[in-house]
Write a structure and sequence with these properties.
single chain; Rossmann fold; 16 helices; binds adenosine-5'-triphosphate; binds magnesium ion
Length: 433
């Protein structure tokens, strides 16, 4: 691989202003290189700043500080040569497929006749010949994203940035499109010299990338990298690929859950982004783990396969389990703790009691709500002050989401009640008697 650097980021930082006027740092001191000839995958938790980083590279938003260069030149705005594919396809519904694809060329001042020719060629390349006259709504999700990719490729981009380009598609469609992209890349059917993909999907990263980077959260920073020195096309069932997937899982979970594995109160901050997951999903994973097939310990990729659930749904459940001390994660495995074992075997009311106790011990926000209610003479409080507290370190949406999780969990563990009409939190009835 040539060491020519396509994109170079040094010390990049970015903050967003919160609704109360304070700033929240999303990216801090990010260094990154995309070299000529490589595909790099960027993994990271939701909200860690992956899309923000991509938008900065695409010149769509400015960084607050740091250096961003494309082939040695500073990036000030959208650069010809860098194209982006979005998860949401971002097609214009009133334009035909052909018109959507030509859009990028129009902006570059390419004459009509050539625009048509190039759009035709790229539609053919991506498997959409004959669909030029169709409107986006007439297409399936997979075909829409083919249009999104065609629109990026028609400009003959030097660098392609793909933000979860396959994740809105069903598994099979996503995999087919991924493999088609790799064929274009490996067969050198496109002039693109470097690809950066953002993904939630570990298998996708291992199947596609030459290097996998991890972005940590709060603030986002490139934490570590794994090289994938396997020739493509890769066989998803081969031992090498499975071993790498295991390794990446291990790294992901180690980081995601390291700080909470300890399972002691105050190990996490009050505004910790609680994982967004249903109680039923948490208990489902626990039950499966306890199942004789796994007998208390499972390999994470195996569990993914067994549940047929995407990682972005399973990871929050793992994190919740680790947070509550019901399971622990170690090198790509998840194991029941003795408490987790007791939980699985307990009756519904004992389950709730354990859940509540663990919340008070391990989730500072839940403990804070409970203690505030206990110290209030009426035993009832509006949710507002808790929301305000969270907004000191989180964006409004995030704060609301985190409080929602704390409320749902607290209600389940019966450490407080919540009235959805009034937004008031109260101590549970029976304890007031
Ligand atoms: N324009 C904005 N104004 C304020 N906050 C923003 C803005 N854009 C992003 N953020 C915040 O910055 C953080 C990072 O967002 P970003 O979309 O980059 O994360 P991400 O890693 O792409 O997440 P996901 O995996 O969910 O796509 C989030 O907390 C988000 O709410
Ligand atoms: Mg994103």
């Amino acid at each position: 691989m040539s060491q020519n650097v396509l994109i170079q980021l040094d010390g990049v930082a970015k903050s967003f202003r919160l609704s109360d006027g304070t700033a929240r740092m999303v990216l801090d001191n990010v260094d990154f290189r995309l070299h000529d000839g490589e595909i790099v995958a960027l993994l990271g938790k939701s909200g860690s700043g992956k899309s923000t980083l991509l938008r900065i590279m695409a010149g769509l938003i400015p960084a607050d500080s740091g250096n961003i260069r494309y082939r040695g030149n500073p990036i000030y705005g959208p650069a010809a040569g860098i194209a982006m594919v979005f998860q949401s396809f971002a097609l214009f519904p009133w334009l035909t497929v052909q018109q959507n694809v030509e859009l990028g060329l129009e902006a570059q001042g390419v004459p009509i006749a050539e625009r048509e020719k190039r759009a035709d060629a790229v539609l053919e390349l991506i498997g959409l010949s004959g669909f030029g006259g169709a409107l986006p709504r007439e297409l399936s999700g997979g075909m829409k994203q083919r249009v999104g990719i065609a629109r990026a490729l028609v400009t003959n981009p030097d660098v392609l940035l793909m933000d979860e380009a396959f994740s809105a598609l069903d598994v099979l469609t996503g995999e087919t499109l991924r493999d088609d992209m790799l064929e274009l890349w490996d067969g050198q059917l496109i002039p693109t010299k470097g690809i950066l993909i953002v993904s939630h999907n570990i298998e996708e990263a291992v199947m596609m990338a030459d290097r996998i980077l991890f972005l940590s959260s709060d603030p986002g920073r490139v934490r570590c990298e794994v090289r994938v020195d396997l020739p493509r096309p890769r066989n998803v069932d081969s031992q090498e690929v499975r071993a790498l997937i295991d390794e990446v899982y291990a790294l992901m979970t180690m980081r995601a859950v390291q700080e909470v594995v300890v399972g002691v109160a105050a190990a996490i901050p009050i505004a910790y982004r609680l994982p967004e997951t249903d109680i039923s999903r948490i208990e489902g994973v626990l039950d499966l783990l306890a199942d004789e097939q796994f007998d208390g310990r499972a390999d994470l990729p195996q569990l993914s396969e067994e549940t047929e659930l995407p990682d972005e749904e399973l990871f929050p459940a793992y994190e919740a389990l680790a947070l509550l001390g019901l399971a622990f994660l170690d090198k790509g495995d998840i194991s029941l703790t003795p408490l987790g074992r007791r939980y699985v075997e307990a009756s519904q009311s004992v389950k709730k009691a354990i859940f509540g106790e663990q919340l008070l011990a391990c989730v500072p926000l839940a403990a804070h709500i409970r203690h505030s209610l206990e110290s209030d003479v009426t035993g009832a409080l509006s949710e507002k002050p808790f929301l305000e507290l969270l907004k000191e370190s989180l964006e409004a949406d995030e704060a609301g989401r985190v409080l929602e999780v704390a409320v749902e969990w607290g209600r389940y563990g019966e450490i407080y009640e919540y009235d959805f009409h009034t937004g008031r939190l109260t101590l549970p009835e029976k304890e007031e008697e």
